Amino acid sequence: MSDITTEIEAAAFRRLLEHLDRRKDVQNIDLMILAGFCRNCLADWYREAAEARGVEIGREQARERIYGEPFAEWKARHQPEATPEQLAAFEAARKQAH
């Protein structure tokens, strides 16, 4: 992969993080229902990519990179409990994916 490709992908990743930061109203469960991934998945992918390159990053450290703050703080401020409708839609989407 060329350096320019890596730079472009990094810029797109940073823009995705900025977009998710602006859209705190979009809940992780909604992302999972519609797209099959959420901010936590992105943090896991980030951590796995680091580890594949010999860089140890803990789960909470990776989540802080994605959320822009400690996950517990973000969750307390921006993530209400899932509604029964969201939980039902999540379960239906999960079944559909398998």
TrEMBL record:
Annotated ranges, domain SMc04008-like: 26-91
What high-level taxonomic lineage is stated for the organism? Bacteria, Pseudomonadati, Pseudomonadota, Gammaproteobacteria, Lysobacterales
Q: Name the Pfam families for this protein.
A: DUF1244 (PF06844)
Q: Give the protein's recorded name.
A: DUF1244 domain containing protein
Known InterPro entries for this protein? Answer: SMc04008-like_domain (IPR023163), SMc04008-like_sf (IPR036810)
